[in-house]
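We store amino acids, tokens; thus:
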Amino acid sequence: MKTKNALLSVLVLTGVIGSAYEATQLWQIERFNTALKHNATLPLDQYPLTEKFAAAHRQGNSGEYKHAIQTYGQLLEMAPDNEMQARVHYNVGNNLLRFGLSRRVNDDGSLIEDARYALMQARASYEQALRLNPALLPARFNLDLLLSILPARMQQSEKEQSGVQLSNLPIGLP
């Protein structure tokens, strides 16, 4: 009977310690999310990945898309696994998409060159995110959304430019 009581006591103590640990983790996550929501900064010296992610997120939310993309690029070098890399590519795609959509159009309604470039890079980022993690549904949704807003000739022009043109000879001539 004493061994059963001792075993039960150990199990209860383990459960209490585990619950306390989980509660602490949830409290830290909630505190971090609240700070992000209010654009506050937290001392994150122990969490360099989280610090970079938070900085890039803040930059993107404030409209500094190029800085956010650079910060995500630094984060990509630090990412430990494919899951994190996929999420970084997804966020890069989001910032490129927002940057491309914020650019003006030419007088004839066509996209200016930096907007076109940003949108094509966003497409590549979403595709890379899906290669790394095919189950990342937000990347799939944003890629489909991006493809639905791209002009048809812009999607085709990429495929048509695959040949190399030497000097002034047209492609296809001997």
About this structure: Residues 156-174 have pLDDT under 50 and may be disordered. The first helix runs from residue 2 to 37. The two ends are 94 Å apart (CA to CA).
